[in-house]
Amino acid sequence: DQASLPDLDLLHDPEDELLCANLLDLVQATLGKAPLGSQRCSRLLMPAQLVAQVRTELLRLACSEPCGLRGALLDLCVEHGKACHDVGHIAVDPAVVPTFQLTLVLRLDSRLWPKIQGLFASGPAFTPGFSQSLKLSTGFRVIKKKLYSSEQLLIEEC
């Protein structure tokens, strides 16, 4: 069920909105430096539609938390096939004791997969400093785990 626009406005904290924008900048910077192979340098790019979808989902998952988005730990992963590669960990506000953990699982654009299979292998790089940009798919998964409760995991597939 979709909440109406006025309901969504009541749920969103202006501080969380700004924090989420800064968090997504940090996520994109982390993806830009993702170590995707033994010595290769590559950049993972988030399409604008993916950024907007992730922003909405992060704010929605944080609205029921005691400290809002400030209480989140974010694990960033990139999935290809059945493997999931850890690319970063972010404490949204290091001054706040975390109350929940989010694992954001992004996917490579499957149309690119045959071209970039070797990037995740541990074989030698073509040349030192090799750099290329890879686009992420607009599909993603977020796993939410409350750190102060024994509730089950919440997995959102988008």
Automatic annotation (TrEMBL):
It holds the Pfam family RTP801_C. It is found in: Cytoplasm; Mitochondrion. InterPro entries: RTP801-like, RTP801-like_C_sf. GO terms for cellular component: mitochondrion. GO terms for biological process: apoptotic process; negative regulation of TOR signaling; response to hypoxia. Keywords: Apoptosis, Cytoplasm, Mitochondrion. The keyword Mitochondrion applies. Belongs to the DDIT4 family. This is DNA damage-inducible transcript 4 protein. The gene is Ddit4.
